[in-house]
Amino acid sequence: MRDTRESRLLLVLLIAVAFALITVDIRGGQDSPVDGARRAAATVFGPIENGVSSAVNPVGDAVSAVRDSGERHDRLAVLEKENAALKAKLGSDDRNRSRLTQLDKLLKVAGEGQYGIKGAQVIAIGAAQSFSWTITIDVGAGDGIKRDMTVLNGNGLVGRVTTVGPDSATVLLANDPDFTVGTRMEGSDELGFASGEGDGPLRVELLNGKAEVQKGDRLVTFGSEADKPFVPGVPVGVVSRVDPSGGGLTRTLYVTPYVNFTKLDIVGVVVEAPKKDPRDTVLPAKPRPTPIPTVTVTVTPSANAPVDGQQQQ
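Predicted structure:
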């Protein structure tokens, strides 16, 4: 259609008619006079509309899927972050539970031995190139720590303090080759000196070369003059091997320490020695031997077994 004055008037007239029909339709509601015409139009143009919708909807669905995918990715990221935080919390709780267990054991040992202790945490281990077994703890001179104090944990003897700083201290572990501590055997009171052997058991030289010793015997610290560097009664370990007596002045034993020197976390520094020697009271309870079951075998004679004095036919 050409853009003329008549065409413009026709367009205005059609628009006016359309508005009039819309007004009549709205006011008429369900009884609208144009309802029949609307249904007829729907019958004619409905299939075309559905076809266009089918062609266009996949595009819309794809856009929605991309948008939803981003939202799902965001939700997944949040869930993963929450999961990681939960795992970290659980790990932290497990560690805290482990520390509480260690602290309970340490306090029990301190109570049984009447040791005044200062609790500490291991914060570093000695440098590998130093060829020495040492740890660093987070207490120092400001906490009353001094050189040559006994260090223990809930299992037994850990070592002795060698260097003290304002807020930290270095501990020489009992398995270090330069470490030596006086020992006393449970029950027999045989005295000796235990030395570190690195990864291996402690080596103990008993002063009595004829001492009666057997596997499973236990040792504690003998104590030092003025209780430095060692207080008495701290569990050392269990005899795992006894060298044959060769008639010498001493006798050699090998002792498995109670303390695992590669797993140290919570320890205690003895800042106050007991008023009296606790002797063997700090040693753990001996494990009860496992009873050996008794098996009774009852023999039941067979029905076909021959009777005394008779032969089976």
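Summary: The longest helix spans residues 35-113.
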